[in-house]
Amino acid sequence: AGPExxxxxxxxxxxxxxxxxxxxxxxxxxxxxHVGSGILNIESILLAFDNLLKMAKKIRDKIDITFEFIDxxxxxxxxxxxxxxxxxxxxxxxxxxxxxxxxxxxxxxxxPFFCLEPGRYLVSDASILLTAVNTIKVTxxxxxxxxxAGFNTLLRPSMYxxxxxxxxxxxxxxxxxxxxxxxxxxxESGDVIAKNRQLxxxxxxxxxxxxxxxxxxxxxxxxxxxxxRAAEVLIKDKKYFLxxxxxxxxxxxxxxxxxx
Length: 260
Known about the structure:
By secondary structure, the protein is an alpha/beta fold. The protein has 2 domains: about 10-120, Alanine racemase (TIM Barrel, Alpha-Beta Barrel); about 125-235, Lyase, Ornithine Decarboxylase, Chain A, domain 1. It has 5 helices and 11 strands, in the order αβαβαβαββαββββββ. The strands form 3 sheets. It has a 6-stranded mixed beta sheet. It has a 3-stranded parallel beta sheet with strand order 1-2-3, with helices on one face. Strands 10-11 form a two-stranded antiparallel sheet. Helix 1 packs across helix 2 and helix 2 packs parallel to helix 3 (about 90-105).
C-alpha cells in the first residue's frame, strides 16, 4: 500500500484483517503482494518480497496463522524498448528463491507454496499487431503515418504513454530516413501509437508491425467508435491458422435487445 494507491492494506489493517478472518472461521490463508508492472530491476522486487516475508512473520507471531502460500505477485518486465536490458531471469530466480527458503526457516513459516504471476513475461512478445498504412499526412511541424489500428486495438500507448517498438514490416532492410508519429483512425487527439519514430520512408499500403502486443493487447481492446475487434492468427512451426475471427458490424449489436 502507499499514499496514492488503491491497492493493498496498511500494516495495522493487515493484522486486523487476518485476525477477523481467523475469528470467523477461515481455515486456509495466503499472503500476496503487488509492487508494480514492467519491472526489469530485480533489486526492487527482492526488497518488496523481503518486506512481505517480514509481514508474514508478524502475522504468524501475533495471530498464529500458518500460510498455505506466499505469492510475490507479478510485475516481471519485458524490454519494450530495444535499448532496455532483459530481466536476468536466472539471477532473479536464484535470488528470490534463496530469500524465500532462508526466511521460511528463519521465521518459522512452515511449508508454504511459493507463487509467482508472470503473465506479461510469458505472453508480451508472443504477439505482434499488424496494421496497414492508409494515410500519410505532412504538416509544417510533423509527419503523420495514419494506420487502421487505433487505441481501440492497442490501448497501452494512449492510456499509459507506453512505448511499443514499430517496424515497417515490408521494408525491414530499408534505411530509416524519416521521423513520424504513428496515429490511429479514432476521432480522439490521444489516438497515438508512437511518437517521433525514425522509420524508412512510409507509403500508403505499407504494413507496420507493432511489437510486444501480447500482454494487455486484445484483452484491453474495445469496440469504441463502432469499430469491430481485430482477428487473431496463431503461428506455430511455420504453420498458421485463424484462432479468433475478426468481428463484424453485426458483432456490435450482439446481446442488445430492443423492446418493440
